[in-house]
Predict the structure.
Amino acid sequence: MDSNLGTSLSQLTPIQRQAVNWDKGALLVLAGPRSGKTQVLTCRIARLLDESRDQRFRVLALTFTNKAADEMKDRVRSFVPELEDRADIFTFHSFCSSVLRQHGAHIGLKPGFRIYSRKEDRQALLRNAIRRDSSLHEHEPWQFLPLIDRLKSQLIRPEEAVSHLKASAGSSIENSQFPAAAYRLYEEELRRANALDFHSLILEAHKLLKHPALARYYQTVYRYWLIDEFQDTNDAQYKLLRCMAGNDFREVFAVADDDQTIYEWNGANVHRISALVSDFGCDLIQFPTNFRCAPQIVEAANRLVVYNAQRLENKQPSISVRQATEVESIQCRVFPTDQEEVAGITNGIIAMGDEGRSRTAVLARSRSMLESMHDRLEAKGVRSAMLMRRDDFVSPNMRWMIACLRQINRPLDRHNLSTLANTFDAIAPVPIAPEDIISRADATGISYLSIWAQAARRTDLPPHIAKAVKLILSITDGSQKLSAAIDTLVKLFGDENADSGLQDDLSAWRELSNNVNVQLELPTLDQFLQELDLRSKNPAPQSESVSLATIHGAKGLEFDTVYLMGMAEGIFSSWQSIQQNNRGSALEEERRACFVAITRAKNQLVLSRSDQYRGYSKEPSRFLREMGMLNRETPPPVSAHITELA
């Protein structure tokens, strides 16, 4: 046994060690916030591999973010460095991508397919598709895409769309046939482009794994399955697992917390954990210990979440192992208006100094509140970073560079050629029509990218842009290696007084490319672009930056200090959840979101609200009352308000 693994195993609690050593079939681990689930998952993977050194089976682990997958891979690599290749750790989407690239030919998919993640690309694709049906000409693509996504998330295929829409909405055939036709044409256009979107990955993998022989293949290759954050699975993902497991496979090890089920808008369901227990015959272990939060924060979280009726029976309350301190871990602040709430939080952040800001977050129920917070902090000279998933780079420079890479990888991709030309036109106005490039390429046999680069070089370009085009041309004619040319190109962009958007993109690129190269070890260009499609393009936060995040965006993160703003009825809990039913599932999900938000804080939690939002009076959030916090609210000094708002 590797010494790192031995040390990590020795540091586990008895109940964690029981989970790591489990060998009696399916197991569900109920793991509350910061209860050591990642350590248990990775120690279990390492233990299974370490005890089977002379065997060839693999271990499959599924999670929801590339960050979580990368962290698990790194830990397994440190525990059993010579055995890490037998552990396949994926997000659900990257696993489905791998399945389809290996076996997609059985359902007519070519292995080099592209994954469309940008809404703009998908709208353009759908716009091209619906041109082939005159009855759809008056419709815009944005009208159909949300419905197409919803159908795919329910594993409804185009040929089933009319009957499903008619049955689910009670609509007529006439009302159902237009979106169903758009869906069919959209799928045909995706196949024509040899592409899939995110929802297609699950849909097509499920279709493929319905073949019993292929399902048995994955049951044999992967003798043990581990599923992280199981409460976040949607219906399609769970059906994928059930399909792959068949009737007999039971070596499933799932980690979940019903109290952190906050993605019902994406198909997660608090009852799915019970379905897992029933379908797989899971035994149950609980991790109630919270290693992150101060005792007062854990107590408040416990008081809050017991108001939910939709919880697993016999759920144990969380227990903090940290020592209580004389300093209050929770502060409650009330302000007259929402503008003063933003100003008051800004004052508190300024008062803490530079050192603590990188370990501080402001969380809110909505993005609009965070944007006000961002503007206020920036006006006061305080750096802040919005922690939002970005599916694409924002600067035309980087989008053009990626389009060039895609064109190198798929020389005949006409849709990408349009993206390449349009993004470059945003850098330096160069009127080169893609249709002209295609005609000249067809006549000469020269690649689209070479024709474009030659035409661009004949125009009057700024010196650094001319150098960039020359670098791309050097790749196409083989005079320079791809990796060296891209490194030079990135450095060139960074040297030319890059604006903030390009700086953020360059930071994201460096982190992304480094992570992909570490995880895949010398990936091909095709592999690299596949990973790029699946990963967020968020830049790493700058030092001394305050993190701003929606509650959903903060899940899985932790901070020394957390400001949770907007704790008022109609704000958080939201107006929509209150209108549906005071005791309904929507309100319970809001309460779980509040539970997630407050348990992001390690040391200090500041709960704030105002008496008015946008001029409308608001009562305190019921969540404050449920946590026992209403009698602890304190207003800030009046003089501070007057100074800030002057």
About this structure: Residues 53 and 111 are 32 Å apart (CA to CA). The chain has four domains: 3-97+205-287, 114-193, 295-387+543-645, 396-534. Confidence is low (pLDDT under 50) at residues 639-646. Residues 114-193 form a domain with the Arc Repressor Mutant, subunit A fold (CATH 1.10.10).
